[in-house]
Amino acid sequence: GLPPAMQKxxxxxxxxxxxxxxxxxxxxxxxIMVVGSTINDVLAVxxxxxxxxxxxxxxxxKKEPLCRQKQHRKVLDKGKPDDVMPSVKGVQERLPTVPLSxxxxxxxxxxxxTFKLEQDQLWIGTKERTEKxxxxxxxxxxxxxxxxxxxxxxxxxxxxxxxxxxxxxYWVPTQYVDAIKDTVLGKWQYF
Length: 191
Known about the structure:
This protein has 191 residues and is of the alpha+beta class. It has helices spanning 39-62, 70-76, 177-184; strands spanning 7-10, 33-36, 100-105, 110-116, 121-125, 130-134, 140-146, 149-158, 166-173. Strand 7 (140-146) and strand 8 form a beta hairpin.
């Protein structure tokens, strides 16, 4: 009751489908095994996995947007910095040759990002100090538009093995978000 496409023949291992039993030299009395599945069996195996993926997606959709979470609200509620770089919505640009400045970090202090491509480094500068990070040490970059100011993003650089190591930067102009991700995560842009 199984369609031929759902059957596999085994004789000293899985047989190539285009070969006949004669070509493989199956002799009288040799043991062969035929394995197969019905369409319903195959669908039953895939359904729990699909359902689990849908549950995960539903759970993610229920999550509160990052910009509404308390830890981020305290910085975002300060409002847009006066000296933030202008944003161009709906446009993707390469990284500028000057540092991206006028943004806030998670403590609400001013921060600037300098991309030293020739040294393969990202410099994160504050009033107190400049952290020089090899691009390869940054595990991930996440971003999300800021509600009510979709032309700016909040962005995190993962500096260690877990989300606890995220370095948050607020008010990143949207036109640079993809270029930052591509540059940091290794999809080089040649100028």
